Amino acid sequence: MELLHSGKVRDVYADGEDLILVASDRVSVYDVILPTPIPDKGKILTQLSLWWFEQLADVVPNHVISAAAVPTEFLGRAIRVKRLSMVPVECIARGYLAGSGFSQYEASASVSGVGLPPGLVESGPLPRPIFTPTTKAPALPGVHDEPMTFAEVEEQVGGDVAEQLRRITLEVYARGAEIARERGILIADTKIELGWDASGTLTLGDEVLTPDSSRFWRAADYQPGRPQLGLDKQFVRDWSVTSGWDKKPPAPEVPDQVVAATQARYVEAYESLTGQKWH
User: What is the mean pLDDT of residues 85-100?
Assistant: First the structure.
């Protein structure tokens, strides 16, 4: 196999006509990889994505070929997938007002150019889920994704493709949010990756509806009007803000108790959603 790319979390290998995606235990905040891994994170992301790909199979095709036909050393945290020509847009759906979405709303009463009514509060539900795409910034320190309007997406990929991206993203979010709500989890927002397969079909790639790509909240603890306790890497992000770190590399080591609490959140998300005990 040939290593094609080593990202913040995943390593991508070429194996003949296929790719092997290997999820690591690395964690990044503010586009900086922290020096301390989160145990089992790569396996949880992989297994949860595989579970979701099955739940979404009738919504959008996905890139999975096999979770078994991978090198032995990567079993459990790798997937053999089809090569895709990735769409140059980050596809994001939001059902609640949180994170950068809330910041945009406070500044302009809109998110990615989508106007919203007055009086919405932090973590509050939106009148309906919205498509809030961003650019795909190069993986460089200090370079971040920027919000895009739908018109800007149309300019980049064309009107028909832009409409497909919006439709698929909102359908994935709607299905995921419905399933998660039944299991006691609110999905505030999520990011998906789409690309064209060899036949020209828009296909779901990368990971889907994981604690790294989504904002998960416990439904039982939900209280709009304030930040929520997240079952995702928000706990690490919150710690980094209070650590005195300037958000530039190199990042500091993560304390053991923060690592353990973060791992517990990933495990809780997996077990709550799938109904399966993490091993």
Answer: 96
Go through the domains of the chain in sequence order and give each one's CATH number.
85-221 (3.30.470.20)
H helix or E strand, kind and range, residue 12 = strand 10-15
Residue (of 249, 251, 227) closest to 103 by Cα position: 227
Q: Locate all alpha helices (DSSP H) within 69-182, ordered by sequence.
A: 99-108, 150-157, 159-182
Distance from C-alpha of 228 to C-alpha of 135, rounded to nearest angstrom: 26
List, for residues 107-162, the tens digit of each pLDDT value: 999 999 999 999 999 999 999 999 999 998 655 555 567 899 999 999 999 999 99
Q: Which residue's structure tokens are 């301390």?
A: 36
pLDDT tens per residue across span 232-244: 888 898 899 899 9
**Per-residue three-class SS string for 203-214:** EEECCCCCCCCE
Closest CA to 42 of 7, 85, 2, 92: 7
pTM over 0.90: yes
Bridging pattern class, strands 10-15 and 18-23:
antiparallel
Q: What is the pLDDT of residue 140?
A: 52
Q: Which residue has the tokens 């998300």?
A: 269
Is 239 exposed, middle or buried (CB count within 10 Å of its CB: 0-12, 13-18, 19+)?
Answer: buried
